[in-house]
Amino acid sequence: MMNLTRLVIFLNALLNLFAGLGLLFFPHWFFENIGHFPPYNRHYLGDAGAFLLPWGVALLIVARDPRRRLTLLGVATLASVIHAVNHLVGDLALERLPLGQVVRDNLQVWIFTVPLVGAYLWLRRNQPA
Length: 129
Description:
- There is one protein chain.
- The model has no long low-confidence stretch (mean pLDDT 93).
- 82% of the residues lie in helices and 0% in strands.
- The protein is mostly helical.
- It has helices spanning 2-25, 27-33, 42-64, 70-94, 99-125.
């Protein structure tokens, strides 16, 4: 189970690293191909990248030894949950998008968030006394 936990953390690290790098260094491409939330704003895309890149680095550090870095994993997991909930609230309550579009637009975020929450909870529950 520990190898699966580390894999989940590592995949989340890669997702955030690549998103952060894309947002910082290729913002127009990222906007057009991945996160098309108009209007285009280079400053806000860069801000998002500035947060996602270190989030990915932190998860890489956690993946090496998750039991020793449980607090850092908890912070990254909380950020992931807040991000996923923000997408849902935006799509359901603010944009009032059709349910099918909400599911399609949010699936990737939740596919990464739910296993990360599971990894964190499993590590908490199985932490040596």
